[in-house]
Every structure is written in structure tokens, then in C-alpha cells.
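Tutorial, part two.
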Amino acid sequence: MPTPLEKARKNPDSMKAKILLSARHLFGEYGYHGVTTRMIANEVGIDISTLHYHWGDKESLYDAVVTDIHDEIIGVLKDVEKVAHGKSMTTRLNIAIDTVCDFLFAKPEVPKLVVVSAFTKTRPHGIKDDRLSQHVPNIAIAMGLAPDKKGVSPRDLARVLAIANAMYSFASGESSFKQLLKVEHKEYVSIVKDTLKFILTPAFTQETAQNLAVRS
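Running the prediction step on this input gives:
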């Protein structure tokens, strides 16, 4: 039998999908404990009984939101791996930064929820939203930081996380950072991409060149 999440994905115009979308925005903005089912129901324009009929309790809905978001992120990362694998470090970084930034800025609730859930005690007991961790080694390999999963060191993982955290921070903090820079959305996204490339490309390409020199 299909799960509520599978049903919502299959029919984006359904009530399940509408509730899921509102829950994504609210959980991303206020965290698990800052959101009530009444808030979600009010945003959708339904009563609480209808929400519970479609999704059960708040914990089940939050788990579906987390699963939905991480599945989307994983899909984006797999796309990056396919395109970037085997290319130069500069090209890999450019592809990763452009692709992931485009995704995060197109769906601002995603970086907000990731940041809120990662750095605050905002999720219910029993729900682990660390599913992305199993894919971090694959990104390290695709970026050329390690030859295979056995060769992925804690330092390699930390460098992948450094890239991810920078993108999440810029995307989730857009409203504040944009005011600071005095720019509109389109220019802000462009500046973020250029800044990330300006900082990361020299750091990664220099070390790659040094490693190749040592091996030769």
C-alpha cells in the first residue's frame, strides 16, 4: 500500500500534497516545536480533523517532510555526481555550486529546515534527519577528494560539509544577507555563486595539484 508521502508525490494537487507543502514551509521557518497542526491546517484552509485524516499526528507529518526534502537533495547530489565525475576539480566545483545553489534558492524552505534541524533541538525523539550522511562519501569521491569509499577520511567529509554548510547558510540567510549587500534576489544568487567559487576553487585546486605532485 502506498504511503501518504508516495500518494502526495503522485498527485501534487491532492489535499495530502497541499498539507505537505504548507508543513514544509512552516517547519522550515519555525522548527518542529514551533509549529502546531492548527497552524498548518489554518494555512491550508482546512480543519485539524482533515489534516489528521490525511497525515496522522504532527510527528508523522514532520517525518514525511524530512524524508521528502532529503530525497530531493539526494536526487540533486546524484545529478552532480553524474555530471561532475571525472572532470577537473575546477569544473566539478563549478557544477556542484551552480546546481545545488539553484536548487536551494528555488526552494528556500529546504535550507531553512536543514539548518534549523541540524543546529537546534527542534525535532521529536525517534526521528533522525541525518539520512544525508550516507551520501556525503559519494560526493567526496565525485569531487575527487578520495579514490573510493574506503579512502574517504574524516577530513574529506569535513571539506564536503564545509561546501554544503556555506551554501545552506547563504540560502537560508538570504533575507538578512541580501539587505546587508543591498541587492535583489537575482544579483544575490549570482554573488553567492561567485563568492563560493572565489573561496573554494583555489583551496581545492591547489591541494589537488600538490597531491598529484607528491604521487608523481
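The radius of gyration is 19 Å. In part three we will examine how such features are distributed along the chain.
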